[in-house]
Write a structure and sequence with these properties.
There is one protein chain. The protein is of the alpha+beta class. The chain has 15 helices and 51 strands. Strands 1, 6, 7, 8, 9, 10, 11, 13, 16 and 17 form a ten-stranded antiparallel sheet that branches. It has a nine-stranded parallel sheet with strand order 30-29-28-25-21-20-19-32-31. Strands 2-3-4-5-18-15-14-12 form an eight-stranded antiparallel sheet. A hairpin with a 4-residue loop joins strand 49 and strand 50. Helix 12 packs parallel to helix 13. The radius of gyration is 27 Å and the shape is globular.
């Protein structure tokens, strides 16, 4: 779908280019059709900052506590215009807390100092320049912000050497320089590299320059785009077809300087993902569709017979009664509670798909109840907007209304009563078989913020999973819900995970998967994954196994396939591939304590679960160019094979010392090395999954692991493993019950582990907080060491076993240990 912005952008490009080439061009000449704020006429203090009035509007610069500064810009040709109370779904139901600001005049400029930023406003022709506390320029208006016929634009100067990233899931390079990225959530079946827009909209970008990062969030859900020096030289531009609250340009400038502090502030503004149920991090099997119920039961039984771990099975649209949401087919799924009970006995949870389209049927309870509550998106005359999706003629809930979200939440009860444990929200761009989506004239009520589909289209994919999440919190208060969405907008992470939509079974799509998930993480959405193997088409055995490997530490781990594809389970490609795929999934389960800990770290700091290699090295130009590797948590680097018929790959390790898991080979960072990574038929029958999948641990890391199990909860986590790699670093282990909300009342345990290492001794100091008892013991494995003279726990000698071939020592310590020492 093409963003309809040609005329505004032609004007914008002309103005920008002429403004650079012809400085004598007057502001008045520029305003023939495009309106700028113009010459400043005065300013006044407002809560948290200042309002600056100009010839054609006003700008409000305000401090947002713990975040940065917010700039609100409105355009009018009088001196009495006012700013309404801001309305935003990206930042939550309540306005962000304003901070304090110091306002002063310096020469001809108005200066606002707030949250470590210094905003300087030029008076003669209004422009903003923003610097951090160290004086580094973060943003400088090129032509600034403007409006034309209700459309908005903001153009800032590019800086030589700057790299731009984030902007959600985009099927392009993770470094966005040179691209034009449109914002209009689109059901793009079978998208290919470079196809945009796709399913979700994140008008947030990060700029990295000389190792310093900052971010800009444009709080505007209308159709728009970012242009990263794609059409107009020396500029980065944001344009949109409309603005919130009657045409307001609103953006937040958020400082780093590190990516960790930047994402911490950004997630404080837009929200963080709460702790998921631990089972939701296990392997999940899906297909369009597994039906009837006997096929589902046989699938679960086959997993257990083949000793392959798995935690969830998905039911696509064929479980419903003629695609009516919140129903079960009376012929194919006549006894859903019996089905979910039998699957639970095998350790499987059931996740069902729910689309927004509600079949128009006067005898259908959901449609009746929705109609009685006037719950539908409407046409201008007040009649329901009717689209066409799987059940045929369908009405769409108006999720912009709290009462409709509450009703939709009530409808979840039929699934909860049937024993379903998660909901998969699909088709919520929103999609329609008529012209792709709703008509632009469709109306939303908005609870006091009524508007057309223009405003609510991109937000629909966040509002629907919100309604779902809130219903599950109401009717299953002791269970953490798993909600998955295909579409979304900033803030969706408060309610839902996301997957990257209808990808294809191809090597280019395998390569895209990691960069798209990294883009989502950098945009504040940590719980994301792709359809393993590719939704469309049939992957080769090699492609499927490599995809399982590549995604082994992606936050969301699900195989999914289209209706016209061959069966795709881990055993579908013969005994050798079954052996290898089993090993890969088992590796996932062994590393679940580390993955679960990374989710906890997100709840505390906003850091992504998986991170680009440049996360801790934004000044490393080599790391900035790497997007086929990823970090999971603080200390693990995954370098999967992404090309066919490949037995090795080049790996870039950032600064420091690294150990390859499975071999204990050490390598210095800051270099490119060639790592062996044999394919399944060349891996010698490997049952660890680590011969074909290079994973590196940072020196000093303590990597928490567990014994593999068939599903989460199959056995008590009384004993965990701590894998220690010599060096100096800080690591963490988070433990709680794995479900429920006792952790919010202090029933958790956080163990911080600080490793030090010298010529005579390797030590790990452990400290804890929280009331959860956690593991009663640890099996410690120290890798890459010569045979030690002794091993101690809290100063007392403990017996050990040394493996000279692997150069590792193993010993057991109690779960309350505070000091571990290995003396050389």
């Amino acid at each position: 779908m093409t963003v309809r912005l040609p005329r505004i952008y032609m004007q914008l490009a002309l103005i920008a280019l002429l403004g650079v080439a012809m400085p004598w061009l007057t502001v008045a000449a520029q305003q023939t059709e495009y309106t700028w704020i113009g010459k400043v006429s005065g300013y006044e203090r407002v809560p948290g900052g200042v309002m600056i009035r100009g010839a054609h509007g006003a700008v409000m610069v305000q401090s947002v506590a713990g975040v940065g500064v917010r700039v609100r810009m409105r355009f009018w040709d009088n001196l009495t215009g006012a700013f309404p109370a801001p309305h935003s779904l990206a930042t939550g139901d309540s306005e962000p807390k304003l901070g304090t600001a110091v306002v002063r005049e310096e020469g001809n400029d108005i200066v606002v100092a707030a949250e470590g930023l210094v905003v300087r406003a030029a008076r003669s022709a209004f422009r903003l320049t923003i610097r951090d506390a160290s004086g580094r320029e973060l943003m400088r208006d090129a032509v600034g912000g403007g409006s034309w016929n209700g459309r908005l634009a903001h153009v800032v100067a590019d800086t030589v050497g700057a790299r731009y990233t984030a902007v959600g899931e985009q099927p392009i390079s993770l470094i966005r320089n040179g691209s034009v990225i449109p914002f209009w959530n689109t059901d793009r079946y079978g998208y290919q590299p470079g196809d945009m827009p796709v399913y979700s909209t994140f008008p947030f970008y990060i700029r990295i320059l000389n190792g310093v990062s900052h971010g800009l969030l444009y709080d505007n859900p209308y159709r728009g785009e970012f242009d990263f020096v794609g059409r107009v030289r020396n500029t980065v531009a944001y344009t949109a077809e409309g603005g919130l609250d009657g045409g307001e340009l609103r953006y937040y400038v958020i400082a780093g300087p590190g990516l960790d502090s930047l994402l911490g502030r950004y997630s404080r503004l837009t929200g963080r993902t709460p702790m998921p149920p631990r089972w939701a991090l296990g392997y999940q099997q899906s297909r369009y569709s597994y039906h009837p119920d006997t096929m589902v039961t046989n699938l679960a039984t086959e997993f257990r017979r083949r000793d392959i771990p798995g935690d969830a099975i998905y039911l696509d649209i064929h479980y419903m009664d003629e695609y009516r949401v919140f129903t079960f087919s009376p012929t194919e799924f006549p006894h859903p509670k019996q089905l979910t009970d039998s699957l639970r006995a095998l350790g499987f949870k059931v996740v069902t798909i729910i689309d927004p389209g509600v079949k128009v049927d006067s005898n259908y309870g959901v449609f009746q109840r929705g109609t009685a509550k006037h719950a539908w998106v409407t046409m201008p005359d007040g009649s329901p907007y009717i689209g066409k999706v799987w059940p045929g003629e369908s009405a769409y809930p108006d999720f912009s209304r709290a009462a409709v979200r509450s009703w939709w939440g009530d409808e979840q009860k039929v699934l909860i009563d049937a024993g379903v444990r998660g909901v998969w929200n699909d088709m919520n761009e929103p999609s329609s078989f008529r012209a792709g989506t709703m008509s632009d004239i469709a109306r939303f009520d908005g609870d006091g913020h009524p508007n057309t589909h223009h405003e609510y289209h991109n937000q629909y994919g966040t509002l629907m999973p919100r309604a779902t999440y809130e219903g599950w919190r109401k009717y299953a208060p002791n269970e953490r819900p798993l909600v998955i969405t295909r579409a979304g907008y900033p803030g969706l992470q408060r309610y839902s995970s996301i997957w990257t939509g209808d990808n294809t079974a191809s090597w280019p799509h395998l390569r895209l998967a990691t960069s798209m998930i990294l883009g989502l993480g950098l945009s504040g959405v940590p719980f994301a994954g792709s359809d393993i193997g590719g939704f469309i088409g049939d992957p080769s055995a090699d492609l499927y196994s490599r995809w399982l490997q590549s995604a082994v530490l992606h936050p969301f781990y699900r195989t999914h396939a289209a209706i016209d594809t061959k069966r795709r389970e881990p055993w579908s490609y013969g005994p050798e591939y079954e052996r290898a795929n089993r090993a890969t999934i088992r590796l996932r389960y062994k590393l679940l304590p580390s993955l679960y800990t990374a989710f906890y770290q997100h709840t505390q700091t906003g850091s992504p679960v998986v991170k680009p290699v440049f996360w801790n090295a934004p000044s490393d130009t080599m790391a900035l160019g790497v997007q086929d590797q990823y970090m999971m948590g603080d200390n693990l680097l995954v370098a999967p094979v992404l090309d066919s018929a490949t037995q090795s790959r080049r790996v870039y390790l950032p600064a420091g010392q690294w150990y390859r898991m499975g071999s204990n080979e050490s390598a210095a960072g800051g270099t490119i090395l060639t790592a062996t990574a044999p394919s399944v038929l060349q891996d010698g029958g490997d049952t660890t999954a680590l011969r074909g999948l290079p994973i590196y641990a940072r020196a000093g890391a303590v990597v928490p692991m567990q014994m593999p199990m068939l599903y989460d909860g199959a056995r008590a986590l009384d004993t965990l493993q701590l894998h220690v790699y010599p060096g100096a670093a800080t690591s963490m282990l988070y433990e709680d019950a794995g479900d429920g909300y006792a952790y919010q009342r202090g029933e958790y345990r956080v163990t911080t582990m600080r490793t030090t290492n010298d010529a005579t001794r390797l030590s790990v100091a452990l400290s804890r907080e929280g009331r959860y008892p956690g593991a009663r013991g640890f099996v410690v494995t120290v890798h890459g060491v010569d045979k030690p003279r002794r091993t101690n726990a809290d100063g007392k000698s403990v017996p050990n076993v040394y493996d000279a071939t692997r150069r590792e020592v193993r010993f057991a310590v109690p779960g309350t240990v505070r000091t571990i020492e290995v003396t050389r």
